[in-house]
Specification:
alpha/beta; 12 helices; 4 domains; D-Maltodextrin-Binding Protein, domain 2; Chorismate Mutase Domain, subunit A; 6-stranded mixed β-sheet; 15 strands
Length: 358
């Protein structure tokens, strides 16, 4: 009996110490949540959690106990996420479109703890963050089928916000009809021009007529209002539930790898410590008006070991026949090499800005 009591006293003392340490840990979690809220970062960071698990499990020498400790840490991190979500909940997330649009789905996927603010345009969503009406804006920057979203890229160039994350969202189009409608009833499909374009082979195969709406969610809303069995919307699955429509056919887009990349814009930049693995940054620059300036600029980026995944040119709308360049580059611009690269790059550019780091 004495041995049992001794063991329980040890457990009681350890529990007391663990309670103190738990409070310290949650205070740090509060700071992490504040950082993420300010910059529009998601609560869940799977790579970071896996890194913590691997590191902490190495502290446990007993192989049998290690598997239980891993579960203990997973539960601890789950509680930490719940606390972060509680602290972050209510953040205002702007997007372009209406409830049920792909941008709305992206905003809910990236920042599931937010309050979602529909805006009539990319500019309006961006400006709502600039003016403090929203905390973040989730906007598309590229589609694997249709290419870059030039209007959002131009907002990056002319605006003041920072990109703190870039996320991929698979785009799956469905054919949505009113309750009681069947495939053989459909004569006209309604959707955004890009969605119609992405489904054109399917539309042609069935001989459907096309009607254009400002976005896919509005198309679904219109079809629901019309209650016309001959009309169907092309939109995502969530929109069907939202507007009480029936899914007549799934996954009708031509490309089965249709993905849109969304960026999270915030007023505060994401500070990534030097040396962080897998970091990337967005670089906007305008080269000097001299022969070879672009080639020399690209050589500078390569010289310091930075790999450009994306390089595009865009016209500067305020200055005819002038262009700026958009580059997505692997690495950390705050590292020693990054600072040297940016310093030397300025010699060849009359405008240079790191817009986002993630």
């Amino acid at each position: 009996m004495g041995e049992l009591q001794d063991a329980r006293k040890v457990i009681e003392e350890v529990d007391r110490k663990m309670a103190d340490l738990f409070e310290q840990r949650m205070e740090a979690v509060r700071e992490v949540a504040a950082y993420k809220r300010e910059r529009g970062l998601p609560v869940l960071d799977e790579k970071q959690e896996e890194k913590v698990l691997e590191r902490n499990c190495d502290y446990i020498k007993d192989e049998v106990i290690r598997q239980y400790y891993r579960k203990f840490m997973q539960d601890t991190m789950a509680v930490s996420r719940q606390y972060q979500e509680c602290l972050i909940s209510g953040a205002r997330v702007a997007y372009s479109g209406v409830e049920g649009a792909f941008a709305h789905v992206a905003a809910k996927t990236i920042l599931p703890e937010g309050r979602y603010m529909p805006c009539p345009s990319f500019d309006a969503a961006y400006l709502s963050v600039v003016e403090g009406e929203s905390d973040y804006a989730v906007l598309p920057i590229e589609n694997s089928y249709a290419g870059e979203v030039g209007q959002v890229m131009d907002l990056m160039f002319h605006g003041s916000l920072h990109v703190n994350g870039v996320y991929n969202l698979s785009i799956v189009h469905n054919l949505l009809g009113v309750p009681g409608a069947h495939m053989e009833d459909i004569r006209t499909v309604v959707s955004h021009p890009q969605a119609l374009s992405q489904c054109r082979p399917y539309i042609a195969k069935h001989g459907f007529r096309e009607e254009v709406e400002e976005n896919t969610a509005v198309a679904a809303e219109r079809v629901a209002e019309w209650k016309d069995k001959t009309k169907a919307a092309i939109a995502n699955e969530a929109t069907a539930e939202l507007y009480g429509l029936t899914i007549l056919d799934h996954d009708i887009n031509e490309s089965k790898n249709n993905t849109t990349r969304f960026a999270v814009f915030a007023r505060t930049k994401n500070d990534i410590s030097s040396g962080k693995e897998d970091s990337s940054f967005i670089l906007l620059f305008r080269v000097n008006n001299v022969a070879g300036a672009l080639a020399e600029s690209l050589q500078v980026i390569s010289k310091y070991g930075f790999n450009m995944r994306v390089l595009r040119s865009r016209p500067i709308k305020t200055t005819p026949w002038k262009y700026y360049f958009y580059a997505e580059t692997e690495g950390d611009p705050s590292s020693r090499e990054g600072k040297e690269m940016l310093r030397e790059l300025r010699e060849h550019c009359d405008m240079l800005r790191v817009v986002g780091q993630y």
